[in-house]
């Protein structure tokens, strides 16, 4: 049976993973498209060989895994290369995500993706929760987490939907501009609400 799916969207560094982890600790089955995008390029998977063919062997590290920082630098300064990579990976990611969603046994499941709105997946989910923060905070948190330059994080933000665009599709908004204790409380409140939408089905 297809589970009831909550979409969890937000730009880079907005706090999707922080929010998703808290839902997961309440027993909700979470599928993250960023993680799926990692699985499909693990050594031995055909997509990794295609990437090495296209970008050259320099895109692999000595141990045969993808040089993610190197590829990130390349695609976000070259829209054509980014489109090529997305054309290869997005169908595979979608397949992985659907497969993992179908394994859900919790009252509802969560699909997390930075590109949910961009990829039109807001139409696929039953309800959409957007994690929203001011751009300055998004920038600060992403730079600190990824040890990335302001220029690089801004380039990624530019490649994503604007806050306004995401918020236009939101059913619920979690403004993540306070501390993690507050975030936890908001997640608990939302979880109780989603359970009522599901009629408390366990
Ligand atoms: C370029 C890659 C190798 C960089 O890896 P890295 O480990 O540095 O980053 P990670 O995958 O954790 O992504 C970090 C954040 O970057 C942003 N981001 C990644 N890919 C994209 C993209 N194609 N468009 C816009 N933003 C993106 C997202 O906010 C994401 O959460 C990787 O992001 C990738 O394979 N991207 C293409 C696949 C994709 O579109 N993934 C996004 C969701 S499916
Ligand atoms: N309320 C908060 N207070 C302090 N730090 C936070 C808060 N929420 C998230 N963070 C931190 O900010 C960084 C970005 O959060 P997170 O990784 O959850 O974002 P994300 O939306 O999943 O990003 P991406 O799209 O890049 O994967 C992390 O280091 C996280 O621990």
UniProtKB/TrEMBL annotation:
ATP binds at residues 13-18. Keywords: ATP-binding, Coenzyme A biosynthesis, Cytoplasm, Kinase, Nucleotide-binding, Transferase. Pathway: Cofactor biosynthesis; coenzyme A biosynthesis; CoA from (R)-pantothenate: step 5/5. One of its GO terms (molecular function) is dephospho-CoA kinase activity. Its EC number is 2.7.1.24. Catalyzes the phosphorylation of the 3'-hydroxyl group of dephosphocoenzyme A to form coenzyme A. This is Dephospho-CoA kinase. It comes from Stutzerimonas kirkiae.
């Amino acid at each position: 049976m297809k589970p009831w799916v909550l979409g969890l969207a937000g730009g880079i560094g907005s706090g999707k993973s922080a929010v998703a982890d808290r839902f997961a600790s309440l027993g909700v089955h979470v599928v993250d498209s960023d993680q799926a995008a990692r699985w499909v390029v693990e050594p031995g998977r055909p997509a990794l060989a295609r990437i090495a063919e296209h970008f050259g062997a320099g895109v692999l590290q000595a141990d045969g895994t993808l040089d993610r920082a190197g590829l990130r630098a390349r695609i976000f300064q070259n829209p054509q290369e980014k489109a090529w990579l997305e054309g290869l990976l997005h169908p595979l990611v979608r397949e992985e995500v659907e497969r993992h969603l179908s394994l859900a046994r919790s009252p509802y499941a969560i699909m997390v993706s930075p590109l949910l709105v961009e990829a039109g997946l807001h139409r696929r989910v039953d309800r959409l929760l957007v994690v929203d923060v001011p751009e300055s905070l998004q920038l600060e948190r992403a730079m600190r987490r990824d040890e990335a330059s302001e220029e690089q994080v801004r380039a990624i933000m530019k490649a994503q939907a604007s806050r306004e665009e995401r918020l236009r599709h939101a059913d619920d908004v979690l403004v993540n501009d306070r501390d993690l204790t507050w975030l936890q409380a908001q997640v608990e409140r939302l979880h109780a609400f989603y359970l009522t939408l599901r009629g408390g089905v366990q």
